[in-house]
Design a protein that fits this description.
- The chain has two domains: about 190 residues, FAD/NAD(P)-binding domain (3-Layer(bba) Sandwich), CATH 3.50.50.60; about 120 residues, 3-Layer(bba) Sandwich (FAD/NAD(P)-binding domain), CATH 3.50.50.60.
- The protein has eight helices and 25 strands.
- The strands form eight sheets. The chain has a five-stranded parallel sheet, with helices on one face. It has a four-stranded mixed sheet with strand order 1-9-8-7, with no helix packed on it.
- Helix 1 links the parallel strand 2 and strand 3.
- The chain is elongated and about 70 Å long.
């Protein structure tokens, strides 16, 4: 039986940052993830994708962000159960929980924080009759290594952030980039839309809207696609077709834990601490929902911070929490010391 203070389901960026915030409170964490390594989607799906909205980083690769988070939490020595899926949860008489994985590994903790991102997921595929014949033969739903597109002809389909961001990124890698969207308006960030428009003017992206890919041609691998624009159909020669229409998420076994679910996400109390309808179980990051929710990594970091504050009070109800700013207290294991921390300026929180 693995025992810890906070059991975190999901080892993506939000779950990893929760380890840091818990560590500042001298709370130990253990993480469960079905993937064989920490990092969640950032490592499994788009490790080389640039992220632009992490404070302090004008641009950071998703994989690099995970590496930095792992380095940041190293002094707090979290435990990991990787390659196993959290399957069942049992609430004990004392209010604590036992979570068992699909491989039978049991974990015991007074607090459970679900940070499972989108859960398990599958890419949304366009309705092209022969698309399965070309999967991994020029059709990719996820970009893991941009270098495989070096000097290649690439057609990207989609109108969200992922399609826009990858079109921008690959304009510096691929030989030709064509972005196809069935509408003239995009769903992505305005800044990304403007960048694509500028790259179109510069001749680095061929933007075709409104249009859609309706067929794929090739002998054993992608050699071209057919575009339908209005009543006209044209062929574009290409080496890769990348439809980026998002992911279809599934909560998996967590959906059977008695939690309040809304549109495949876990409802939480965002006015306080991101606790679910079951006391002692929290949900942070993309897996949760509440009025005004934004599925951004930086929002997950904020939610993880408040969750840890609440978890501390749940684990130590008789202790008065005193917040210590890392800028003046230092962090054990980094450049601070307990002696200096005791002298730090502190702010009491009632």
């Amino acid at each position: 039986m693995i025992k810890t203070d906070i059991l975190i389901i999901g080892a993506g960026p939000t779950g990893l940052f929760a380890v840091f915030e818990a560590g500042l409170l001298k709370l130990k964490c253990h993480l469960i993830d079905a993937l064989p390594q920490p990092g969640g989607q950032c490592v499994e799906i788009y490790p080389k994708k640039p992220i632009y909205d992490i404070p302090g980083y004008p641009e950071v690769m998703a994989g690099e962000l995970v590496d930095n988070l792992m380095e940041q939490i190293k002094p707090f020595e979290p435990g990991f159960t990787l390659g196993e899926r959290a399957e069942t949860i049992e609430k004990q008489d004392d209010g604590s929980f036992i979570v068992t994985t699909n491989k039978g590994t049991k974990h015991h903790a007074p607090v459970v924080a679900i940070a499972g991102g989108l859960g398990s997921f599958e890419p949304r595929k366009p309705p092209i009759a022969n698309i399965a014949d070309f999967e991994d033969k020029g059709v990719e739903y996820i970009i893991r290594d941009p270098e495989m597109y070096r000097e290649k002809k690439v057609v990207i389909a989609g109108g969200g952030d992922s399609a826009l961001d990858w079109a921008i990124y690959l304009s510096n890698v691929a030989g030709e980039v064509t972005l196809v969207h069935r509408r003239n308006e995009f769903r992505g960030a305005l800044d990304s839309v403007e960048k694509v428009a500028e790259l179109k003017k510069l001749g680095r992206i061929d933007l075709i809207t409104p249009a859609e890919v309706v067929a794929i041609q090739g002998d054993g691998k992608v050699e071209g696609v057919t575009l339908r624009k209005g009543d006209e159909e044209t062929r574009i020669d290409c080496d890769h077709f990348i439809p980026l229409f998002g992911l279809a998420p599934k909560l998996g076994p967590i959906a059977n834990w008695g939690l309040e679910i809304e549109k495949n996400a876990i409802k939480v109390n965002n006015a306080l601490d991101y606790q679910t309808n079951i006391e002692g179980i929290y949900a942070i990051g993309d897996v949760n929902t509440y009025p005004g929710k934004l599925k951004l990594i930086l929002c997950g970091f904020h939610e993880a911070t408040l969750m840890c504050q609440s978890a501390y009070k749940r684990i130590f109800p008789d202790k008065k929490y005193v917040m210590k700013y890392t800028t003046v207290s230092g962090i054990d294991g980094f450049d601070g010391s307990r002696k200096e921390a005791e002298k730090a300026v502190v702010k009491a929180i009632d």
